[in-house]
Amino acid sequence: MSSKGKRTWDALTYDIFLWTFNIIIDLFFREIHPRSTWRIPKHGPVIFVAAPHANQFIDPLILMRTVRQDAKRRIAFLIAAKSMSRKFIGWAASLVSAVPVGRALDMKKPAKGKIYLPDPEGDPTLVRGTGTDFLDEKVYMLGGLLVLPSVNNSAANTEIKEVISATEIRLKKAFRGDIAIKQLTGQDIGQGNGHLPSDSPPEKSGAEFQGTSFDVAPHINQSNVYEAVFTRIREGGCIGIFPEGGSHDRTELLPLKAGLAIMALGALAENPDCGVTIVPVGMNYFHAHKFRSRAVIEFGYPITIDNELRLTAVTTLAPDYDTLMLIQAVRRLYNPKGKRLPLPMAVELNRRLVKGYTTYQSDPRVVNLKQQVLAYNRTLFRIGIRDHQVSC
After folding, report:
1. What is the percent of the chain with per-residue pLDDT over 90, rounded to a whole number?
2. How many separate domains does the chain show?
3. Domain housing 172
4. DSSP string covering 147-197
5. Closest among 335, 330, 336 to 374, alpha carbons compared
6. Are residues 230 and 98 in the same domain?
7. What distance separates the 2 farthest-apart alpha carbons in the chain?
């Protein structure tokens, strides 16, 4: 079948699928009210970013239906590869050209042995194991994840940066949160100040604390996913993504994933004139799990990324990542009134600080300042807050 014939066939199966499932949607919902659909671009590549993600099946169907009816456009959604492997769901998703995305946490497996933090204060990224074999490359991959036991349906995880030995691993980022620290040390971290208590004995210590059981997830190469997205964008099509990464029924958004930024900037890097736009979409339900409930789907203004803005916003020529983080922290601390600096001014200040640092980095005063700022950053990281949340 020619590429034109395939596109025609894909469009036909998409419309038949959507028409069929529209009947189910109309039966379940009393009313679906779209707002500001005039903001949807009628031409050119579009990335629809929808949240909150209440249901992995209903949300994309409602968005597909609304965009098809009001803008005459079709969306290819990203779907978890785990869902794609299920017979009916995978078949249905293939009819609407869904793009499967492998998720490391969907492939996690129980690991042998236990892990703990030997020095949570001085070196929180070093993990030590008992009865482990971190040298098994098939299990412990660089870029893979160490996953702690789930508590309240939430499991802390972080990425493997380096395998040091059969019993030691270096993490890319330290585990965060009181629960994770307690799991890895057997101790509470006090009153939320990010430090282990010095005035009370730990619950378990020394030989008594053997660590916690854990899971390990492999590193997933997403190059095929991004290539499929870039192909769709090159063809002027639409991509749908739920940046929270999973469905939930919470009242607040989950932490957003970086995939959206990679897709948009990657497409622009490949072709600066591709004209991709990002359209935010709000999925609002009234009694979402109740039969004959109502829903409102609202579209925000399309976001375009200007070439010049994109370059100036991210270009600060620091010699390494740690220096860049140091410079950004100093720039924020240099602004004691907490006023939001215009973007060009913030970038220019970053550049001047980098130039000054590279010139005087051996000066004892600069070395001392660097140590203090990095210690400040580590404290913020342990507590789980950002610099702008600190009150003077």
Report:
1. 25
2. 3
3. 107-217
4. EPPPBTTB--EEEEEEEEETTEEEESS---SHHHHHHHHSS--TTTSSS--
5. 330
6. yes
7. 74
User: 345 is written with which tokens?
Assistant: 């001014």
Angle in degrees, CA 344, 345, 347, rounded to 5: 65
Q: How far apart are CA 230 and CA 238, in angstroms?
A: 11
Encode pLDDT of 43-64 as tens digits. Answer: 999 999 988 877 778 888 999 9
Residues 113 and 252 in one domain: no
Question: Do 227 and 82 belong to one domain?
Answer: yes
Q: Report the alpha-carbon distance of residue 79 to residue 93 in Å, rounded.
A: 8
Q: Domain check: are 154 and 212 in the same one?
A: yes
What tens digit of pLDDT does each residue of 235-246 get? 899 999 988 766
On whether both 115 and 150 belong to a single domain, the answer is yes
**344 band by pLDDT with thresholds 50, 70 and 90:** low
Residue 311 clears pLDDT 60, i.e. is over it? no
Query: Would you say residue 310 has pLDDT above 70?
Result: no
Secondary-structure breakdown of the chain: helix, strand, coil percentages, each rounded to the nearest 5 = 40, 20, 40
CATH number at residue 77: 3.40.1130.10
Whole-angstrom Cα distance, residue 318 to residue 327? 8
Tell me how far apart the alpha carbons of residues 207 and 327 are, in angstroms, rounded to a whole number: 42
Query: Domain boundary at 175, 191, 217, which?
Result: 217
- CATH of residue 213: 2.40.30
Domain boundary, last residue among 237, 272, 305: 305
How confident is the model over 201-216, as pLDDT tens digits? 444 444 467 789 999 9
Contact 128, 193 (CB under 8 A): no
Q: Where are the alpha helices (DSSP H) in the chain?
A: 3-28, 58-71, 81-84, 87-95, 178-185, 223-234, 259-270, 307-314, 321-333, 343-360, 364-383
**Who wins on pLDDT, 162 or 53?**
162
